[in-house]
Amino acid sequence: MSLRISRLLILTAVVLAISVAAQAQTHEAPSQAKVFSAVLGDKVIALPAPEGFEEVTSQFETMKARFNAIEAPDADMLGGYLPASDCQILRGGQTPAFTYYAKVSVLRTVRNEVFSTAAFAETVDVFQKNSQTLLDPSSDYLEKTMKHVEQELTKLDSKETKMVVNETKNLGVIESRPNVYSVLMLLNLNFDVGGKQSQIPLLASLTFMRVKDRLLYLVAYRKYQAKTDAATLSQLSRKWNEIILAAN
Q1: Do the bridges between strand 100-107 and strand 37-40 make them parallel or antiparallel, or are there none, so unpaired?
Q2: pLDDT tens, 45-85?
Q3: What CA–CA distance (Å, rounded) separates 63 from 90?
Q4: Structural domain boundaries in the chain
Q5: Dist. CA 134–CA 115, nearest whole Å
Q6: How far apart are CA 37 and CA 49, in angstroms?
Q7: Element (DSSP H or E) covering residue 85
Q8: Is 36 helix (H, G, I), strand (E, B) or coil?
Q9: What pTM was estimated for this model as a whole?
Q10: Cα distance between residue 2 and residue 39, in whole Å
Q11: Could you give the C-alpha distances from 42 to 112, 138, 214, in angstroms and in order?
């Protein structure tokens, strides 16, 4: 099971990157939920936002639809997050740049199951030993997943969406401790949305986190524009890990 979970984490990270190509959103009155959480079996998991971010799927139906559309087919989206400044832009009826965002997901088949410390250690070990294979952009599983997301986005935006993952690089470990394992990745992506093509280099912090005997995937993204972006994203990842663990 751990190999499947490790693969899903990487695939989820890659397919989430397509939200860079998001189209204009419809303005909606936000609910401004102060406490955001998810129910996993008999556990309630608090999922506070990263520092300076807001959870958006509970505030904007359009954002909930978009985060669901970019989810891997065998995962459940639990929460999606944008910087507070982007949320203000959404409230004004405009479209933010979507260059910085985050998401929490869970593998559907183990959503309600107890995930032991041994299973967590095994998952991390499998990822470490097989990261090159798991990051292979030409894998059949990744291609199948990307096709699924292309279809979902095409339906959502009424514009044909195509995407190609050119390259994925593991840039190293951000944090490794009991119940937490985070790595930094670089994704090079090509998009074609309604005939408009673009190339996007994207940094992604990927975290396996065991909370209340459940396994979560925390993913944060930042469009690569400056050398300092890697340090900025790594710092956000470490702080977000602390925020979620402290809330539970």
Answers
A1: unpaired
A2: 999 999 999 999 999 998 898 888 888 888 899 999 999 99
A3: 10
A4: 2-247
A5: 21
A6: 10
A7: helix 84-91
A8: coil
A9: 0.86
A10: 22
A11: 7, 38, 10
